[in-house]
Amino acid sequence: MTEKLILIDGSSLLSTHYYGMLPKPILFAKTEEEREKHYGKILQNKKGQFTNGAFGMTKAMLKLIREQKPTHLAVAWDISRKTTFRREAYAEYKGTRGETPYPLKEQFPLMQELLGRLGIAQFMHAEYEADDYLGTLSRKFEKEIPTYILTKDRDALQLVSDHTRLWLMQTSEDKAKELCQSYYPEGPEFNILRNCFELTPQIVKAEFGVHPDCCVMLKALTGDASDNIPGVKGVGAASAVPLVNEYRTIDNLYADIENIDGKEEKEIKAFWKEYLGISRSPLSFLLKDGAREAAKMSEFLGTIKTDIPVEASLDDLKINICETEMKECFEELEFLSLIL
Domain 5'-3' exonuclease, which positions (predicted)? Predict the structure, then answer.
C-alpha cells in the first residue's frame, strides 16, 4: 500500500460543517437574539448535545479515509485566539471576530473526545494555532511520506511544496468545480471532498501570482481583514504581487527603498513601471512613518510556525481505528447513518 499522510485543520472542518448544516431560520436571522430562538432546530442527540458539526465532520473524515486510503492521519485544533503568541505580540490580531456561538463551541470537546476514542492523533496548545501544527507536522514528515493538508485557511498556501499539497476548501462546490475545470480539464486525478481543490506549487503561482514561499510577503503588504492583519495601507494586490516576485522578502524590499534621495526615488519608480509593470507606484505608502513596522508585524503574524517541539513519530500518526469502538461511539452520539 502506498503511504499517505493527511493533516486536517479540525477547527476549520468542524466550523465548516456546523455552518453548512444550520437550519435556514438561523442562517437568515438578522440578530443574535433571533438566531438563538432557533437553536433548538439544530441537530441534537437525546442528551441534548448539539451534533450537527460533529456529524458532518465525522462523515467527511470517513469519506476521506475510505476514498483516499491514507495510512497516517492527524488533526490539529485551535484552542483560543486570545492566548496565542500572535495575540501576545499584537493585541488586535483576530480582534474583529465575534464570539463562537455556543452550539458550535460545545462541539469542539465532543469531536475531540470522539477522535481520541478512535485513536486518531490530535495536536493542540494554547500558545499556537492549528496552522502551526499543520506546518510543523508537514515539514517534519513530508520527505518521508506524501503529505496533504485539508483546511479552508489560505494561510496554508505557504506550506505547499514539492512534497506537500493543499486541499483548500472553497466557499462552494461550484467554485471548486470551476477551479478543477480550469486546471484539470481532463478531470482531476484525485477524489476529495466535493468543495475542495488541490493546490500544487505551480497552481499556487498561477492562481495567486506568487510562489508558496512568497505568500507571507504578499499578506505582509496587503494585509488580511479576516485576521485583522494590517499590512501596509494603500498597497493593493496589483502592485504587491510584482514587488513580491522581485524582492521575495520585506527586508529585501526595504533595503532597496529606504534612505533614498529624490533621484534614486525616480529611478526606482521608473524601474517598477518599466520592468515590473506597476503603473501606480506604492512607494509613497511604503515609505510612510510606521509602514515598515506594519509590514514586519504583518509578516510575523502571517508566518506559520514549522518548528514547534513535537515528539510524535510518524508511527504515532498511523491509522488504526477499532471498528467496535467506532460503532459504540456512533451509537452514543446517534450517528446511526454512519454505522456500516
Answer: 3-320
pLDDT digits (tens, 9 = 90+) for 4-53: 999 999 999 999 999 999 999 999 999 999 999 999 999 999 999 999 99
265-319 confidence digits (pLDDT tens): 999 999 999 999 999 999 999 999 999 999 999 999 999 999 999 999 999 999 9
Burial 189-203 (b: 16+ CB within 10 A, else e): eeebbebbbbbbbeb
Residue from 24, 19, 25 nearest 37 by CA: 25
User: E strands, 142-227, where?
Assistant: 147-151, 164-169, 196-199
**Residue owning grid cell 506524501:** 146
Question: Which 8-state DSSP code applies to residue 168?
Answer: E
Q: How far apart are CA 221 and CA 215, in angstroms?
A: 10
Separation CA 270–CA 273 (nearest Å): 5
* 3-state DSSP assignment of residue 35: helix
Q: What domains lie within the chain, and their CATH numbers?
A: 5-209+310-338 (3.40.50.1010), 214-302 (1.10.150.20)
22-28, long-range: CB < 8 A, 24+ apart: 22/52
Question: In this structure, what are the phi and psi dihedrals at residue 306, rounded to the nearest 5 degrees?
Answer: -125, 15
Q: Model-level pTM greater than 0.85? A: yes
What angle do helix axes 291-302 and 215-222 make, rounded to 10 degrees? Answer: 140
